[in-house]
Amino acid sequence: MRRAVLATTGISALVVTLLALKPHQTPALAGVTPRPATTVHVPTGTSTGTGTFTGDPVDTEYGPVQVAATLTNGKITAVDVLQAPDQNGRDQRIAAYALPRLTQEALGAQSAHIDTVSGASYTSQGYIQSLQSALDRAHA
């Protein structure tokens, strides 16, 4: 009888814990308005698009995301993250995992047309939108 009570209590606690967890990914990104990513191409050798350009802060479900893109002759040479979700340890771990990958993707693609990082959908969408606004400023 004692084992049955312990087993039932343990299983109940496990079910409650699992139900309390937030999913890593959701099909729709609530609070993030999707914006189509576009590739920005500036011919090499022009002085257009040189400097550091700050993107718009994008509010996500877990906090704002904002980046600044450094361009040299229209080529993305660096992306600095100015704001990222960091309200708790989980947010910090996700940001530490996702942001370097997003930056690497952006530098490789030379645009904001990059894939989201699995498990960091909200942060990825915020990053992409902020980067696109920085690139739009650079080429305005």
What keywords describe this structure?
single chain, about 140 residues, alpha+beta, four-stranded antiparallel beta sheet, about 20% strand
Write a structural description.
It is rod-shaped and about 75 Å long. With 140 residues, it is α+β, with helices and mostly antiparallel strands. It has helices at residues 2-20, 89-109, 121-138, and strands at 51-54, 58-60, 63-72, 75-83. Mean pLDDT is 81; it is low at 24-47. 41% of the residues lie in helices and 19% in strands. It starts with a helix and ends with a helix.
SSE blueprint and pairings:
Layout: H1 2-20, E1 51-54, E2 58-60, E3 63-72, E4 75-83, H2 89-109, H3 121-138
Antiparallel strand pairs: 1-3, 2-3, 3-4
Reported for the largest beta sheet, the result is: 4 strands, antiparallel
Mean pLDDT, to the nearest integer, reads 81
Q: Assign an overall shape.
A: rod-shaped
The count of helical stretches stands at 3
